[in-house]
Amino acid sequence: MIQNRILNVSGMKCGGCEANVIGKLSPIKGVISVTAEFKADKVTLEFDDKLTDLDSLTKVITIAGFTVI
Ligand SMILES: [Cu+2]
To answer: Where in the chain are the domains?
Structure first.
């Protein structure tokens, strides 16, 4: 099933951080779309929960150095 989730992510300070988050998440199998807005501390994810899950995606964001609230 396709899931749409909006995550509150702190630590993104600029467009480079947005690009970092998008670059880490978008190649993951099952991820359909990712947007990141540092000004809103927001990451929007669309993914297929048969192929990935929110926990794994959250972990990737954390490993990249950001905090999922
Ligand atoms: Cu930055």
So the answer is: 2-68
DSSP state letter for 38: G
65 C-alpha vs ligand 1 centroid, how far in Å?
11
CA of residue 35 to ligand 1 center, whole Å: 15
**Which letter, b or e, does each residue of 23-55 get, where b requires 16 or more Cβ atoms within 10 Å of its Cβ?**
ebbeeeebbeebebebeebebebebeeeebeee
CA of 61 to the centre of ligand 1 (A): 14
* Predicted local confidence at residue 62, as pLDDT: 98
- Ligand 1 centroid – CA 18 distance (Å): 7
**Its pTM surpasses 0.85:** yes
Domain 2-68: give its CATH code.
3.30.70.100
